[in-house]
Amino acid sequence: MPRPITIAPSILNADFSHLADEVARVSSADALHVDVMDNHFVPNLTLGLPVVEAIRRCTDLPLDLHLMIEAPDRWAPAYAEAGAASVTFHLEAAQAPVRLARELRRLGAKAAVGLNPATPIEAVAPILGQFDMVLLMTVEPGFGGQGFLDLVLPKITALRRLASAAGLTLAVQVDGGVSLDTIERAAAAGADSFVAGTAVFRADRPDAMVDRLRQLAQRAHQEQP
Ligand code: DX5
Ligand code: ZN
Question: Does residue 35 have an active-site annotation?
């Protein structure tokens, strides 16, 4: 059976002055990716809990929270309580990732962990079973519109193998530079969840772009032996 594909547009590249309208333009998405940045973990500042709660009220799409913040042990649970379907915190920032993953699950969210391009998957291997999803950054985190880093492709493949060998149902998400030009190689490497900001929100028809991206990813999976 083919693995389900998730396309999660990132609102980082949407028009923040018309967020509700922007969200309505991606109704064909599987989830909405929301980037929380604190200007400490990354050199950019975006939005926090009140805005997430406002987005929650204007869409039925599952919210896929990506916390690029310091001290996620302190702040991440509130995003699960606000109704996020999944909460991703960064391994590089967490003090007690196992405890935090269990707390997120207890609050009803999927637990996910993010790895920057320089962080090897070996860092998460011993605790992989605690997570529903691993997010592999395919750019340095902080900004939309950057180029996809092909050097992450071997990490995607290695992570997928690791999860299969351990018998885990793990979503492998890629985030950064995902577009019509890059999604097939990420999917062929083993990714099944795709964040796309610029590619979707700068398209004339964001909904149609979501469908095209999904088709390309599905085709790449089908072509795998
Ligand atoms: C970057 C964010 C991404 C970003 C993706 O740090 O985590 O989610 O919005 O934007 P694009 O698709 O433009 O690279
Ligand atoms: Zn993100």
Answer: yes
